[in-house]
């Protein structure tokens, strides 16, 4: 039958079950990791005296030929190939004969599955890390170049306080990176950091998969929030940013439309990643110890999240690097009522408790609204009817640059703080693997 198992079975597997059971359609992308693992294992067999040096050489040469076929696209799959492990071993046997059967000595496909997936994820996470590094570098460069631009900060989608545009960009640079999912396992030959402490846990443990999927979910959460902000900021009602044509589409009906499809797709793909993460956790929570076939679900989850993140990170980098900001519209959106908190802080610096200062500032806002004036248009005499602590220096409160500069604490929106954030992120980027 060509199966790695048999012996105790009579008859053949139902064709529908055969198709239902197979994973070669998606796990074939682990072909290189599977061959890498088999090479390492064959060396271990030779060291243990279970293979001769000649047999080892024969197996390694055969595996190189299998790898060459995968690499140049000439590998021919067989309908009996359940998965990548079956396919590679079947082809190896065709190339070198019965010696190939010795490769599986003392080895279970369950071992291969988890080892191959760890190896594949280690290499693939390096690619995601590189894309993430590029995105963060782009955000930091824009933050430094545009740190003099002020615009409204929003809470509840209501204008709150003036902030630096750079402060907003840097707030999106906290998604972290996906490295570190390959904590434990096997051989020096495979460059793993350690061996698993328990053989039962080794074949069933999928913490490294769950951590990768959770990282993807968390990273996509931050990217979705950034996308949502930019979608809003790009509307005609705001006009703070303008996306490049390269990352926009038009309408088949309305010629004036320029749609932020790239941002909307980033936002929409979050659900896909969340679903894969939740789905794997639901699978894991119902399993008894050691390997169960349910764990075959892990690879489709990993591959889909990797493919999604791989495209999203690159598109996000393109969006950030090419979008234009409209400084005039940003500054025009600033309004004196956003300085009401600063008015309260002014009174606090004069010695008034904050709760009373907050109330006094609220009364000033109410007075301005009643008189149909901007908050900054209230006269000193009018302000002094609220509190005698108001003096002529209150005029300094109505300066937006003064407003942002008072937030000197680390992480704030003052220029010195933004400069510090930029330096911190540059330092973090230097520590990431190239």
Features of this protein?
mainly alpha, Fumarate_lyase_N, Fumarate_lyase_CS, 4 strands, Fumarase C, Chain B, domain 1, 434 residues, single chain, elongated, two-stranded antiparallel ribbon, Ribonucleotide Reductase Protein R1, domain 1, 58% helix
CATH class of the largest domain: Mainly Alpha
Strand content: under 5%
Characterize the biggest β-sheet.
2 strands, antiparallel
CATH topology of the largest domain: Fumarase C, Chain A, domain 2
Radius of gyration: 30 Å
Mean pLDDT: 84
Strand segment tally? 4
- The CATH homologous superfamily of the largest domain is named Fumarase/aspartase (Central domain)
Distance between the termini: 47 Å
- Taking strands numbered 1, 2, ... along the chain, how are they ordered across the largest sheet? 1-2
Number of domains: 3
* Low-pLDDT residue spans: 173-187, 197-201
Order of helices and strands: HHHHHHEEHHHEHHEHHHHHH
Quickly count the helices. 17
Q: Which overall shape is indicated by the principal axes computed on the Cα atoms?
A: elongated
Known CATH architecture of the largest domain: Up-down Bundle
Report helical residue fraction: 55-70%
Structural class call reads mainly alpha
């Amino acid at each position: 039958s060509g199966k790695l198992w048999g012996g105790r079975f009579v008859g053949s597997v139902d064709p529908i079950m055969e198709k239902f059971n197979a994973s070669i359609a998606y796990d074939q992308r682990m072909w290189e990791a599977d061959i890498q693992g088999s090479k390492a294992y064959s060396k271990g067999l030779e060291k243990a005296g279970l293979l001769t040096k000649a047999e080892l050489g024969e197996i390694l040469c055969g595996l190189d030929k299998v790898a060459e076929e995968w690499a140049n696209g000439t590998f021919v799959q067989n309908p009996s190939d359940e998965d990548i492990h079956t396919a590679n071993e079947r082809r190896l046997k065709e190339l070198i004969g019965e010696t190939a059967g010795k490769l599986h000595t003392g080895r279970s496909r369950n071992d291969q599955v988890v080892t191959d997936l760890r190896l594949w994820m280690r290499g693939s996470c390096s690619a995601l890390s590189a894309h993430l590094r590029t995105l963060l570098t782009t955000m930091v460069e824009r933050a430094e170049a545009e740190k003099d631009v002020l615009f409204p900060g929003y809470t509840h989608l209501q204008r709150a306080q003036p902030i630096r545009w750079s402060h907003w960009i840097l707030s999106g640079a906290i998604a972290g990176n996906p490295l570190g999912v390959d904590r434990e396992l096997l051989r020096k030959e495979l460059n793993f950091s350690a061996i698993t402490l328990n053989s039962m846990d080794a074949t069933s443990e999928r913490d490294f998969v769950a951590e990768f999927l959770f990282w993807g979910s968390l990273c996509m959460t931050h990217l979705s929030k950034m996308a949502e902000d930019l979608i809003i900021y790009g509307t005609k009602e705001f006009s703070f940013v303008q996306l490049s044509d390269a990352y926009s589409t038009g309408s088949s009906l309305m010629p004036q439309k320029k749609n932020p499809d790239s941002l909307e797709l980033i936002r929409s793909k979050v659900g896909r990643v969340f679903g894969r993460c939740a789905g794997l956790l639901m699978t894991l929570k119902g399993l008894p110890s050691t390997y169960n076939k349910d764990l075959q679900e892990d690879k489709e989850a990993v591959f889909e999240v990797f493919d999604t993140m791989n495209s999203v990170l690159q598109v996000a980098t393109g969006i950030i690097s090419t979008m234009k900001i409209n400084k005039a519209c940003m500054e025009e959106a600033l309004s004196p009522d956003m300085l009401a908190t600063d008015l309260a802080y002014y009174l606090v610096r004069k010695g008034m408790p904050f709760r009373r200062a907050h109330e006094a500032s609220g009364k000033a806002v109410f007075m301005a609204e009643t008189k149909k004036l901007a908050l900054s248009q209230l006269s000193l005499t009018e302000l002094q009817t609220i509190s005698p602590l108001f003096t002529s220096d209150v005029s300094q409160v109505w300066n937006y640059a003064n407003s942002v500069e008072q937030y000197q604490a680390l992480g704030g929106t003052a220029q010195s703080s933004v400069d510090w954030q930029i330096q911190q992120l540059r330092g973090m980027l230097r520590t990431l693997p190239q």
